[in-house]
Amino acid sequence: MRILHYSEAIHEGITGRQSGVKDAVSATIDAFASEGMLLVPEALRQGVTQSQYSLIQQQPLTCIS
Asked: What is the mean pLDDT of the chain?
């Protein structure tokens, strides 16, 4: 698993969620945080199926400083 500092992968603004989903699908990033009610429709819009993502990580995410 790749560890990115929050400042290395920021998806903000109108296209932030769209970019986040694309980067997660392409494995550019491992995970990102978003509002589930907005994230699920964006994932579906991009053709991502429910079996390809989870809203809650199976293993806890950690913060390493």
From this structure: 78
> Rounded distance, CA 12 to CA 42, Å?
15
Query: Are 20 and 11 spatial neighbours (Cβ–Cβ below 8 Å)?
Result: yes
| Helix, strand or coil, per DSSP, at residue 14 | coil
Whether the CA torsion 38, 43, 44, 50 is positive or negative: it is negative
What does the block give as tokens for 57? 């990580």
pTM of the model: 0.65
Max Cα distance, the chain (Å): 35
Give which of 8, 32, 30, 7 is closest to 20, Cα–Cα. Answer: 32
Please state, in angstroms and rounded to a whole number, the distance separating the CA atoms of residues 42 and 34.
Answer: 11
- d(CA 6, CA 19) in angstroms, rounded, equals 15
